[in-house]
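INTERNAL TRANSFER SHEET
From: sequence group
To: structure group
Subject: Dehydrogenase/reductase SDR family member 12

Please process the attached sequence and return the structure record in the designated field. Keep the field labels unchanged so the import script can parse them.
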Amino acid sequence: MHVCYYTALLVMDVGKMSIYRNAVWFVKGLQEYTKSGFEAAAKHFAAADLDVNLSGRSFVITGANSGIGKATAQEIANRGGTVHMVCRNKGRAEAARDEIVERSKNEDVHVHVVDMSSARQVWEFAQSFSQNNTVHVLINNAGCMVNQRELTDEGLEKNFATNTLGTYILTTALIPALKKAEDSRVVTVSSGGMLTQKLNVDDLQFEKGTFDGTAAYAQNKRQQVILTERWASQHKEIHFSSMHPGWADTPAVQTSMPSFHAKMQSKLRTEAMGADTAVWLAVSAAATKQPSGLFFQDRKAVATHLPLASSRSTPQEEEKLLTALEEFALKFKP
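Return from structure group:
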């Protein structure tokens, strides 16, 4: 029976396979990614893991003015860490900073205005930041889900430019600074949605077929997981991880996925629940006892592929992704 089922799956065309992946993923999500999923997982958390004093440690957090990024920044500021908020909108970032400082009584919270979809701005920020500051931990949280195919001023598709290329440039540009710091880490906020996608290196900017913002976002999130694995194997001195926050009630979910938000609102996690694993990976001693390069959900390393989902990529495809990103990065390097 199982063999027949497996064979049937293998001969499915790509369209049916993506329907299979989406269905399996949604059932998994209802069980694990919701508020009740978090509450069940949290029964096994070691509360002491987050009892840390972060004074003297410096954290760069992208997209830190709202949602999971802001909740992460708040938790780090509460524990005395120096927080560098990398945000696109100056007004919103400064309002968020004031709130974080007010709640944490920690003045060491700084705003840097950078549009993560602009490769040149990301480069310029990374270069000047490295010269003037120490960085112990980078949290790649900024992301976007644009539902119409839209190009940046640099001519790149916006989801790809923000989620993948921006993350790639910022991380690679800060690696030399991270290597100089003690107990350095890179945490990338990915998404369980990446489980529905197999890496597609032949259409990084979604030029073929009908554009689907949700699929584009999930593809970018798959790319982030692969980058995390690659960086971990290349840079042993830094602890790399990626994570899934679960389905959280954030401004980004409300605007990018209004129908999902409306249907699921009562089941969604709070922003703090969504941020919990990112904070744990960034600050706890327990996190660095885990191997570098893994994908986490609720403080546990989890599989990066659904069962029978044919979503694995070859080393050659992954190499092709890195080569393409390196070419894009160099093209915009100031």
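Handover comment: The domain at 4-331 is CATH 3.40.50.720 (Rossmann fold). Residues 18 and 103 are 44 Å apart (CA to CA).
Transfer complete.
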